[in-house]
Amino acid sequence: MSEKIYRTGLVLSGGGARGFAHLGIIKALNEAGIYPDIISGTSAGAITGVLYADGYKPDEIMKLLDSHKTLDFIRPVVDRVGLMQITGIIRILSKNLRAKTFSELKIPLFVSATDLNNGRIEYFSEGELLQAVVASSSIPVLFKPVVINNIHYVDGGVLDNLPIKPLEGKCRYIIGSFVNPTGYIENVQSLIQIAERSFLLSMSKEVHEKAKRFNLLFAPPELSNYKILDPEKSEEVFLTGYNAAKRKLEEPEVLKSLREAGVVS
């Protein structure tokens, strides 16, 4: 039996609080009549992806996440393997996810996480949801690894921050949302700033290497003005993604490619 081919796939990068831009981009896509049939995400993209695949609309996800401030998302701990815990994200997902397993989601989903023990990327698409999403979001050094079946996992962005691979060969049209432009910063002084900046730089190379593998890629450069660990400006980040997507979707070449692929009429 041949493998199912989906019409539209959506890939969501990591990016911490910049992930609110994913929601703005998805809202713009939906308003244009574009709805993903399958999703692949890592870190912030995994969180956005799992809630959207569970049936929540972008504005509803904003309300779920935006009601929590920085210390609700992350909590300092004294630990040899991580400076913080993602207690808030665990609470939000535990309380609001209707699906408990991948198979219960309304839209098929892949979640990438980095296997520290074997030094490889892993794409979760079956079994229990919560642990896979939390593992995908655990930025190394800042957050403790998540142990699944005796394997230690950290943020999927370490090895694959723009996880298009699970969707290649499965979709007629693949859309990407990349929220990690690096830009210039004046000072990098604290341990957390250094870890955050180093992680961003390691992830940024992916957009250049993978851009040609997407039919359509959103990568708003204005997002470099926002920190990945500060959700206080979530509404601005959301609007940045939304406005960038609206502009791009109005470009004649983009409209032509969407129509030729049958993504829009």
How do the strands and helices of this protein lay out in sequence?
Elements: E1 6-12, H1 20-31, E2 38-42, H2 44-53, H3 58-66, H4 70-73, E3 75-76, E4 84-85, H5 87-96, E5 109-115, E6 120-124, H6 130-136, E7 146-148, E8 151-155, E9 171-177, H7 191-210, E10 216-218, H8 234-249, H9 252-260
Parallel strand pairs: 1-2, 1-9, 2-5, 9-10
Antiparallel strand pairs: 3-4, 5-6, 5-8, 7-8
How does this model look, in words?
This protein has 265 residues and is of the alpha/beta class. 37% of the residues lie in helices and 17% in strands. Strand 1, helix 1 and strand 2 form a beta-alpha-beta unit.
Question: What are the salient characteristics of this protein?
Answer:
single chain, about 260 residues, alpha/beta, eight-stranded mixed β-sheet, about 15% strand, globular
Please summarize what this structure is.
The protein has 9 helices and 10 strands. The chain is an alpha/beta fold and 265 residues long.
